[in-house]
């Protein structure tokens, strides 16, 4: 191609070119040269995100058969189908980095890759479905909107599609809760109980505090991530407080109050021991979530085989037909 | 999957079920026409056993909210692409031909509609 071909690629020049592109808010595209660390970080982050969407189908799928009306059932089905779609958009993005999505599924069910710890908490009542939409998807939106400007093109584009769909998720959850709050005392208590259980895990969704988040700095330099965990967590708290007031629920934190000086809400300390326990697999539902995912994958093998066999048969018939014609 | 244990003869064109299938479905790239009058645009990829299933999967995955009126699916290995480097000499011939752009030509301000 050029005269430098047999001298091998000039790594320093390639890296400088990459750094310039990223610093100028340019986008990195699949076949561009990129540092190995950048590629690995992206694969880890996008795969973990994809796994979260797929595992996230379970806590809600748990309520599809028990949704109280056809309307709620249809909404919940559509939402769970969206989560599957989001997982697939993201697996599609990882494949542009040279991994195979089948391989990533194997890593998930072998516990070699993680998913968001929030999905290791159980959905005990139907109010949990509303609270997941409002608080959990709300936190996801705060996390995900900046990722639409992530430096890696396929990731950013997948996030644009996902963010467009998340708004439905959050709004249906809030509407569900409003409906319950307009109901009986028992229904209002059910909502408060769900808020009490999900509030702190939602705050943990933003990850460890900035001082304990070793990957943040490099990810921000590479513009994979645009804000620190604590910045996003603060933004989420400030957004959610007025929503809780509108709904008429109490967020379970006695230290939560407006700070005039900071022009932001102060809030209590997060139980990071609990967070680490759940990340390490000791959450209430870790084992069950992975067992379900493994069973779905293994029990689906015959379907994949049958589809492959059918495709082979059709192809063989088509070529026979072509020969005899 | 252990290849060493796999001693069963395989008849060409016939699928086999030996308990260790793991056939990898090919990758398809998906293009969607948002509405009539627009080009198809690349939206992502998926895996499917054949073209028809790829089209159905693309419908379910990429057009759940009326995002399209037409879908193309193309096997990834059927696409030929230019070199990844966008500053490649491949595109150089266009670089120095500024006279292909209308702004190359100076026209007096008092000449209308030009």
State the end-to-end CA separation of chain A: 45 Å
Mean pLDDT of chain A: 94
The largest β sheet of chain B comes out as: 3 strands, antiparallel
Helix content of chain B: 10-25%
Amount of helix of chain A: 55-70%
Average pLDDT across residues of chain B? 81
Low-confidence segments of chain B, ≥5 residues, pLDDT <50? 1-21
By DSSP (H or I, 4+ residues per run), the number of helices of chain A equals 13
Q: What's the number of helices of chain B?
A: 2
* Percentage of residues in DSSP E strands of chain A: under 5%
Overall outline of chain B = elongated
The most extensive contact between chains is: A-B, 36 and 26 residues
Largest sheet of chain A: 2 strands, antiparallel
Number of DSSP-assigned strands of chain A: 2
What would you call the structural class of chain B?
alpha+beta
What does this entry look like structurally?
The complex is a heterodimer of chains A (325) and B (114). Chain A has 325 residues and is mostly helical. Helices cover 66% and strands 2% of the residues of chain A. In chain A, a hairpin with a 4-residue loop joins strand 1 and strand 2. The two termini of chain A are 45 Å apart. With 114 residues, chain B is an alpha+beta fold. Chain B has two helices and three strands, in the order E-E-H-E-H. Chain B has helices at residues 51-62, 92-95, and strands at 27-33, 40-47, 70-75. In chain B, a hairpin with a 6-residue loop joins strand 1 (27-33) and strand 2 (40-47). The longest helix of chain B has 12 residues, at 51-62. The chains are: A mainly alpha (325), B alpha+beta (114). Chains A and B meet through helix 4, helix 7 and helix 13 of A and strand 2 and helix 1 of B.
């Amino acid at each position: 191609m050029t005269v430098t071909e047999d001298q091998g690629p000039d790594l320093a020049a390639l890296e400088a070119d990459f750094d310039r592109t990223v610093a100028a808010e340019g986008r990195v595209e699949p076949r561009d040269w990129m540092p190995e660390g950048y590629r690995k970080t992206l694969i880890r982050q996008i795969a973990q995100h994809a796994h979260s969407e797929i595992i996230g189908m379970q806590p809600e799928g748990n309520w599809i058969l028990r949704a109280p009306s056809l309307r709620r059932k249809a909404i919940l089905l559509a939402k769970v189908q969206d989560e599957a779609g989001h997982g697939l958009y993201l697996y599609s993005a990882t494949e542009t980095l040279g991994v195979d999505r089948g391989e990533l599924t194997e890593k998930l069910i072998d516990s070699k890759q993680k998913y968001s710890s929030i999905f290791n908490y159980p959905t005990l009542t139907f109010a949990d479905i509303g609270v997941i939409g409002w608080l959990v998807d709300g936190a996801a939106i705060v996390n995900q909107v900046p990722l639409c400007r992530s430096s890696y093109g396929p990731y950013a584009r997948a996030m644009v599609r996902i963010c467009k769909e998340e708004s439905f998720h959050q709004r249906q959850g809030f509407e569900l809760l409003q409906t319950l709050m307009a109901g009986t005392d028992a229904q209002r208590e059910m909502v408060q109980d769900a808020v009490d259980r999900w509030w702190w895990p939602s705050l943990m969704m933003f990850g460890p505090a900035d001082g304990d988040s070793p990957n943040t700095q490099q990810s921000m330099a590479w513009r994979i991530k645009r804000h620190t965990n604590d910045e996003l967590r603060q933004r989420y708290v400030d957004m959610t407080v007025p929503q809780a007031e509108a709904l008429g629920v109490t967020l379970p934190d006695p230290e939560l109050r407006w700070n005039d000086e900071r022009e932001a809400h102060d809030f209590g300390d997060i139980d990071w021991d609990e967070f680490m326990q759940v990340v390490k697999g000791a959450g209430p539902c870790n084992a069950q979530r992975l067992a379900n995912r493994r069973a779905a994958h293994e029990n689906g093998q015959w379907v994949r085989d049958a589809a492959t066999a059918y495709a082979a048969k059709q192809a063989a018939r088509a070529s026979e037909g072509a020969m005899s014609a | 999957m252990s290849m060493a244990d796999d001693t069963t003869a395989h008849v060409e064109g016939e699928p086999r079920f030996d308990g260790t299938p793991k056939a990898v479905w090919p990758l398809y790239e998906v293009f969607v026409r948002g509405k009539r009058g627009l080009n198809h645009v690349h939206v992502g990829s998926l895996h499917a056993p054949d073209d028809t299933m790829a089209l159905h999967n693309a419908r379910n995955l990429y057009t759940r909210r009326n995002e399209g009126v037409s879908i193309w699916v193309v096997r990834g290995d059927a696409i030929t692409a230019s070199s990844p480097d966008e500053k490649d000499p491949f595109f150089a011939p266009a670089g120095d031909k500024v006279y292909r752009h209308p702004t190359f030509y100076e026209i007096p301000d008092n000449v209308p509609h030009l």
